[in-house]
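Hi, here's the filled form for the chain we discussed.

Project: internal
Contact: R.S.
Residues: 422
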Amino acid sequence: MATTGTAELTNSLQEILTIEAQYEAARTQVWGQFPMVPADGAISGPDAGQTVKMRFLPRLPIKTDTINEKADITPRKVGDQFVDITIDEYGDAVQITKFAEIVTKGDLRSETGKRVAEQMVASLDRLAGRQYYEGQNFVFRANGVATRADLDAANDTLADSTVGHSFLERLQTALRSSRTPGFREDSSGVEFYSTVIHPVLRPDVTETAGYITALQYQSGRDELFNGELGDVRGLRIMVSEQAKVYPGAGTAAQAATTLSASAVEGATTITVTAATGLSVGDVITIGTLENGTSVTSETSAATTENVLITAVNSNTLTVAGLGYSTTGIDTPGLRFAHASGESVVEAALVAAIPVFGPQSVMKAYASEVGEFGMSKVTGPFDVLERFLNIAWYAVMGWNKTTGLWTVRGEVATQTPHLVYNQ
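And the returned structure, exactly as it came back:
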């Protein structure tokens, strides 16, 4: 008689979670659908190494000189180049206990597996996205303002008539001028570029002259990308919460203040050195601002967040943020912990508009792990077989093909929003 044991059940769960992860990647990844994986991008065996070289052939220059009928020409060197891609490990795990399964209604393993799959796709999507919006050589700001801090919510938004479609055209023109390969419709041969924007820009985009919703053209296109919102003058626009924003980096409404005491993650009140000008309904930014003084690198501001002021009592502000409060999930609190002395400012929210083509970023991955990572189920290893690990694992890396083939635009948003940096 065949006996079904924990090993067989664990393998069955592994198959279910692998399918779940693949489905999640196909359905929800936005940045991850764009990097080019060259023929030698799946590495294994002798090709392995923490840094791998992907061959890249740049476009040849335009040649318009006449040639001599009786003389041979001098061949041009193709000049192949290599893109260095650093391969790293990524992953996380959740451990569930047998007791938790017994006392929890529903299928705890399956539900946990879904959350792990979501985390894997979102995490790898964010890593891919950073190649498109960080470290740009070409940065354009609305109305040609000199610094990110000069971007004003009153004048420097996509909805403003002086910015709008002409600004998006400028970003595309920069790529066309550098002969950046574009995406191409198989049926029509039309070449186009794409961008991924944060949801805070969605209302501004839909007010931009020339905007066409994807619902209007979906039947006439070969395919739609994940997260596709619409088109402005040929620029295909995707929306994802993994896109880049710069909380509080725009024009300040008033002088900044600081935290006079530290605040824990989940806190619903903060204390500032001065609350002059701050009132209920204001959205303020807590943390280090990415001021954009360098176009080739960004300040690390992983704990910067916007919160809403719900009450003011002298220098104590009651706030609601995008984190769970210390009292439970019903009350919004700070997403991050903050140290005394950190900046507190009411200022315009700035959003990035990176524009790119299908060859702007390269990706390499370990073939035994897979292009989109893999789900893992391990255990139970303990004597009583109580602890089961549900995890994900990825071995991959990304890099820009060339600095000429990506460009970033920056605009203020019309209204403040609750966001956090990433």
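Let me know if anything looks off before we file it.
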